[in-house]
User: What shape does this take?
Amino acid sequence: MKYTTALFVICAGAAQAQALTGKEFDSLSRGTTMHFTENGQFYGSEQFFFGQRTAWRADDGRCVNGKWTFEAPAICFRYDDGSGPFCWVIEGDAEALTITSTTRKDGQPPLMLRLSGQDKSEILCTGPLFGVSFQP
Assistant: This one.
């Protein structure tokens, strides 16, 4: 199961990109659901709640609850199934976010995701927990 987390870096022309802080990420994400793509293909969605709680829905429809923490310069996700941490540096703003993994193993290149949408919808599980709406 793929998991995601977002770390944002603010890009402006030739200016140096800056990773979002935990406070900035919380302000941007809390109360929303973010949808992510990899190379233009759906990767997953994460719903963000109060208290840095989340619900992740992978591309296969399976869901898991989790929590994020700020571990400068990354946002790191740990999930209730014991997986993680999955840490990401997030660059940009709500209009154009780039999310880069910092926890790849075995010399693999960093996983790069894009924010493809953000809304107030609840995620729905269509995998083993079909029809379950997560509310941590």
Q: What stands out?
A: The chain has one domain: 9-119. The chain has one helix and ten strands. Residues 9-119 form a domain with the Lipocalin fold (CATH 2.40.128).
